[in-house]
Every structure is written in structure tokens, then in C-alpha cells.
Amino acid sequence: MKYDYGLSTKELEKRASKDCLVVKKMLDKNSIEFKNLADGDKYTLKCLVKAARIIEKINMELDSRHNLPFKKFLEDEIKKGSKKAKLTKILFDAQKGIFALDCESNLVILAKGLEKKPGCGFYPEDLEKEEFHNILIKMIEENKIDEVKKILNQRSVVERKGDELIAIDYVDKFSEDFKAAAQLLLRASCTSTDLDFREYLRLQSEAFLKADAMLDAYADKKWAQLQNTPLEFTITRENYSDEMTQTVLENEKLSALLEKHNIDVISKDYLGARVGIVNKEGTDYILKVKDFLPLMAQNMPFCDQYEQVISKKDDISQTMVDVDLIEVAGDVGAFRAGITLAENLPNNDKLSLTIGGGRRNVYHRQIRFITSEDAKQKLQERLDNILDKSLHQYYDDKMDHPFTIGHENGHSLGPKEGCEALGKYKSIIEENKADMVSLSMLDILVEAGLYTKEERDKIIVTYASDNMLKSKPTLSQAHRVRSVMQNYYFIKKGAMSISDEGVLYVNIDEMVPTAREMLSEIIKIQMEGDFQKGEKYVNDNFIWTTQMEVMSQKLKKISKRLNGTTEHELADMLFEEEI
Questions:
Q1: Which residues in 240-284 belong to E strands, given as ranges?
Q2: 3-state SS, residue 562
Q3: Closest Cα partner for 442 from 426, 428, 454?
Q4: What does each C-alpha distance from 473 to 249, 306, 341, 568 come to in angstroms?
């Protein structure tokens, strides 16, 4: 297929400028963290960076079948001296593909004439929702249950076969790439100085060689046990971007057939890879919260009515590390409307949680730091324009970190099963839950001695201020939709207000009880697992008010940022070196 540019030169120059494209720098080649590693671990990192970039290639194909051909087109045009290709490639590398929503919720399409498909690269491009549903109904009625289960599985790529569909496990679909990554992981395991990390890499290597979800489960289980390793390597598998699979629950006839035949509906996984060096000091800080997790579990709404990942006892199956990043590749590194500060994995749909595996929280140091003077000035300008002056004393950007710690641990609290029935609203509701866990537990954690009263107040005001958005998001942006829902809910309950001039006021003492109220409503919806109730809850609270719009216009004037990109000097050096 012949490609053309989706954006004008003027638009490309704007979006690639330093004002519009924020840069997050990973560890550089002269970092003390890398220099202090044993030689064996340095070699291990070299192999892991190379494996991560293979995972990125696979994920580009899962994202869109046009990504790799378009990338090749850009590279060829750059060799010919095309300025437009060079600018487009900057944005393509940042967002890891042709399609992305920017932080003002505008859809960026880098190739002219292409349309972002709800099924991404997982489904045939010409497959529409109604046809998809009808094919599945016909297949179920013809008793082709096993094939339908594969189609609605998180690991499969779906293709046409006559008037039906077939599913291919992504390990089989991209077998040569997975084999190459597996070989690199085996080599990495041979030189790692940590025996547990070696074993994990070996298990993950095996999982790349055979289309068997249980092999991933064994690797995930081992990964979630790692606590004192010098290095971090993660295969991230999350399903926020597939907008096709969960639509089957909107079709009443199809939904009933799926329930009758016990067919699970799980959105398809994007793949990412994270490579880093564990930071001991940062990890020690994060681990302080671990002793309080059983207390948090005991204080979850309706906690006696469901199973949680975190036990009410002392056998906490969860590890936590703070990581200096070298490489974020594929899904985890795609800087679209934003980039993740941390992850709590594996998600509830993964098999490892059914075989006794736990979860692991990984925090991203290079993503959360605000280092440049320009960024600090922009932050102050933001506060001066949108936050009531009496609350400035409570704003502290360092308090984003403890809030994020509460959020990530919040994913391990609440119902462990049953949320898949919420369909396309599952992720919105789950992300909303994690935020409300973080807020609602603050008073309990102050009383228990984890935080001071001053830290509590700072966490609340910093959260509220940072929750304000530059535009109304689309329903596909789970993390941003939940922000609008929370803001509307807190305003409705009198815990926050936004003036007609777009200035935020936070009633600090009302925030925790209001968060507790919202958390209780969310947990009830997750327990019931009713699609219609989930849909109603989101629609009732996803309200963008006039005052929110006034504030968003102010925020746009303060910050021109539209997207971001990552720089990875050390990873680039390691990637180029021979092994």
C-alpha cells in the first residue's frame, strides 16, 4: 500500500516542538546506577533491551497492521532527505504507531486516508461490529464453541476463514519474533547475578516458544515473587485499547448465548516491555506500605462478600519495586495522551492468579520526576491560575507518589473476579476504584502511623489539582474518564467546587468520606457484574460541566503540551552493541 502524510508540515513542526512534545529521559550511558552493576548484569541488560525492542515490533502489529509498513515508508523517505518524514517519524516513535489520542483528546493520524479501527490489529480491518456479532452467533448456534472461546481470548489475533472467523494465538502468529526474543532471554539468564531473576527469565523464554497461557502463568507467578533483584524486566500485558471484543456484551442475544455456554469475554492484550535497574532507596520507601495492606483489605467496603488478591491475614502475595528505567518499549512506552507512572500486574484476567501467584507493583522513577526549571515554572503558573490561593500551601508535587502507591495497591483490593461482565466500562470502573481506595484509606493510614496529618492534606489537594484536565476525554480513555467522573462526583457531594472563573476549591475534610462513599458504590457495581448498571454509573457521573470547560481553556493557555516522548541513551547504546 502507498502511504501519504496525515499532517501538514506546519502541524508536524508544532507537534514536534519542545513546547508541545514533552521529553522524559531514561537513564543515560554515564549513569552511576549502570556503572555500579556487575559485568554479568550489564550483559544481561544488553540482551533484555534487544528483547524489549522485538516486543515493541510485535505490539506495533497488534496495534495496527499498517504500523510497520508505514514505519518502513518513513525510513525510506528520510534517506531521501524528506523533512516531513523526519518530523512524522519523531511523532511515530513517541506514540509507537500511526494512531494516538493527544492530551487534549484529539485523534492524531499520521498516515492520510487511514481510519483507527476499534479492533486495532487484532481483527480484520473490514470487520464491523454488527457482522462480528452475527458471525459469533452463527458459530455458537453451529456448536463451534471452542473456536469462539479462542476468538474472545486476550491472546489471539482474529482472521477471516470463509464466512467465519478463526483465532491464532499471538505466539504462533509472530513465532519468529518470539523465538528471537526467547533466545535473548535465555542468554540474559546465563549472566544475571540473581538466581531468582535467572529463573524468571528462563520461564518467560519458554512462554515465548509455545502458545500456552499456562507458561505465561508460571513466568508471571515467578516475576511477582521477585523483591531483591538488581534488575527489572517485565512483559506487560494489558487490554485497555481493544474496543471491539467487549462489544459482544451489548448484543442481548449474543450475550445470552455466551453466558449459556460459559464463554468468557476478555479484551485482547497489548504487549509492552520494561527494562530497568531496581532503586533500593526508593523501593524501601514503597515497601513501608506493605505492612498496612491487610488493614486496608479489612477496611474495604463489603470485604466479607468477595475474595481479594490481598489477604486479610499476613500472607501478602505482592512485591513492590521502584525502578530506574532504561527502556520502556511497546505498550508501556507509548507516550500518547500520557505515560504510566506505575503498574500493578498481572491483571485479574491472568491465569497466574488462579495458581497461587501474586501481584507486583513497579514504579517508574524517570516518569514521575519533574526536573527542568521550565516544567517547574509551568507547574507554578498552573497553580496560580486554577487553585484557590488558600490551598497553595498544601500542594506538593512529591505527594503524587504516595497517592500513586495507594492507587496501585488499590488494584489488589476489592472483588478479584466478576468484573469482565462490565464490558467496555470495566477499565473505567477499575481505575476509578483504585483512585478511591487511595483517597478513602488516608485517615486509616494516618491513624496507623504511615502518614502524618500534613501529608494527608497535601495528598488530597495535590490529587485534586492534578485531576483537572485540558479537555473532555473520549470513552476509550479510561484513566481520563475516571478523572471527570471523580471531579463531578466530588463537586456534586460538596467536597470540591470550581468557580465560574475556573478556580478549584477543595473542602479537605470532606474528601475522604466522599471518596469512601464513591468507593462503596463502585465495589457494589463490581460485585453485581451487571453491564447495564455499570454503563449507567459511568454515564451518570461522566459529566463535563461548564466550569470544567472554563478551567480546561485556562489550562490550554498555560501549557501547549500535546504529547510526549522518551529518550533512552543507555538503551540505544546497549542495543547497538554486539552480544
A1: 270-278
A2: coil
A3: 454
A4: 23, 32, 19, 29
